[in-house]
Write a structure and sequence with these properties.
The protein contains four helices and two strands. With 94 residues, the protein is mainly alpha-helical. Helix 2 packs across helix 4.
């Protein structure tokens, strides 16, 4: 996903319209990788519980994605954070 596509998505998201997003250069690869694999989640009772690591790695191999061990670790951290935030939101809605 390109920066212009991200900007377009954020412009349509009411929660981000008044926010500024700063992406540190050392996190760019993991961030874009996360956006590319955002459809590879494992769900339990309709709730995202984790990225499907096997599917993510298969996708990386099939697409010949270039990444480092640190990029992979950052991707995992990002996905755990997203799961945590979504879990909090689900709990608040109950």
């Amino acid at each position: 996903m390109a920066q212009s596509q991200i900007n377009a998505l954020l412009e349509d998201d009411e929660e981000f319209q008044d926010r500024e997003l700063e992406l540190l250069p050392e996190n760019i690869t993991a961030f874009y990788w996360f956006l590319d694999v955002d459809d590879l989640w494992i769900y339990t009772q309709g709730i995202r519980v984790a990225l499907d690591v096997s599917a993510v790695l298969a996708d990386a191999t099939a697409s010949e994605r270039k990444y480092t061990k640190q990029d992979y670790q950052k991707l995992r951290i990002l996905s755990r954070h997203v799961v945590s935030i979504l879990s909090e939101r689900a709990s608040e809605q109950k």
